[in-house]
Amino acid sequence: MAEEFQERTEQATPKRREDVRKKGKIAKSYEFNSAIVILVSILVLYFGGSHGYQKISNLTRFVFSNLHLIEISKDNVQKYVTFFFSFFSLNFLPFLIFLMAIGVGANIIQSGYIFTLEPLKFNFDRLNPINGIKRILFSRRSLFELGKGFLKIGVIGLTSYFVLRGVIDDVIVLMDSDVNKIFNLMSSLAFSLLLKTGMLYFLLAIFDLAFQRWEYERELRMTRQEIKEEMKELEGDPLVKLRIRRRQREIVKMRMMQNVPKADVVITNPTHIAIGLKYEPEKMNAPKVVAKGMNLIAEKIKEIAKRHGIPIVEDKPLAQALYKLVEIDEEIPPQLYKAVAKVLAYVFNLKKKNFKSVV
Predict the structure, then answer these.
(1) Residue 271 and residue 189 share a domain
(2) Domain range spanning residue 348?
(3) 285-305 mean pLDDT
(4) What are the respective helix, strand and coil percentages of the chain, to the nearest 5?
(5) Which strands make up the sheet holding 265-268, listed edge to edge?
(6) What percentage of the chain carries pLDDT values higher than 70?
(7) Do residues 124 and 193 both lie within one domain?
(8) Is 132 a member of any domain?
(9) Record's GO cellular component, any one (predicted)?
(10) 3-state secondary structure of 28
(11) How far apart are CA 257 and CA 107, in angstroms?
């Protein structure tokens, strides 16, 4: 019960985002889709409308020129219907398919490809009239949609007013013009009105898309308790645990290899085990293991040691004891002090001799 009163202040986790997306809940603006389709339709009509107009004009001219030859009867009605259906399908169906593709593309641009049947599942809460009234009257989204509806009406109305006011004198003169001039002016006027309205509608759609995404992120927020429960659930997954342990081992291995150049000596088995030891009397109570490994890791440790001039000492019993008893970054136990001291004394004496010979 306490969880119900917690504020949703935390950003959604990747798992929650994935779960919500699988249910078909995404941030999407229908206004954005409509605006894209409208603008593309206007541009297609502007650049290809003359072709469609010519087709319809030729058909109209043919029909009216042959009215005296057309007979409507039971035998030829199907023939005429088939003819007109084929005509409009061949000339305008590609345009409609193209617009459908644009609409699908606008959806993919917003939220990527997603296919789920989850929204089609029966949900009794949707039939609850109280919940429906709350969504309609008291939700932030419904108020926004109401304001957006008034804004769309205002945009279309004001745009139409200013466009028509600028050409009212030209329209009045059309009373004495021929049909072609009337058609050309009205076409130009319609395109100008549609284009300006479409551009303003597109700006409104951008604003709506921003709001939908903000509202979506807000609804995705989680309480701290939900995050804790999700973390427990994830940590309980054996595969997740395995990946975490594997990653931890990789990090430890990487850090260990970086510490090998800092070692004073590497003690080997000689081929199966390698132990890197470091001792700073001023800072440490006892020598510390900075790296250890078997087989391939041991070979890598010895390779790095050779590259940095670190002495490599073969001592099978000591190497095995250090590998079993001491973890990385731990000091050696008292029972190994004597054996390790002999090795370090040998290494330090070797370094002094090398230093004197160089000098």
Answers:
(1) no
(2) 259-358
(3) 88
(4) 75, 5, 20
(5) 288-294, 273-278, 265-268, 312-314
(6) 81
(7) yes
(8) yes
(9) plasma membrane
(10) coil
(11) 49
- Of the chain, the percentage scoring pLDDT greater than 90 comes to 1
Q: CA torsion sign, 231 to 237 to 241 to 244?
A: negative
| Cβ atoms 98, 105 nearer than 8 A | no
Task: Quickly state the pLDDT bin for 3 (edges 50, 70, 90).
Answer: very low
Measured distance CA(72)–CA(79) in Å, rounded = 10
217, part of any domain: yes
Residue 64 lies in a domain: yes
User: First vs last Cα of the chain: how many Å apart?
Assistant: 78
On whether both 300 and 217 belong to a single domain, the answer is no
For helices 238-259 and 224-235, the axis angle rounded to 10 degrees is 80
Q: Does one domain contain both 197 and 297?
A: no
Q: How many domains in the chain?
A: 2
- pLDDT, average across residues 218-247: 75
276 and 348: one domain?
Answer: yes
**Within 10 Å of residue 277's Cβ, how many Cβ atoms?**
25
Q: 270: cis peptide before it, omega within 30°?
A: yes
202 and 298: one domain?
no
- pLDDT over 60 (residue 134): no
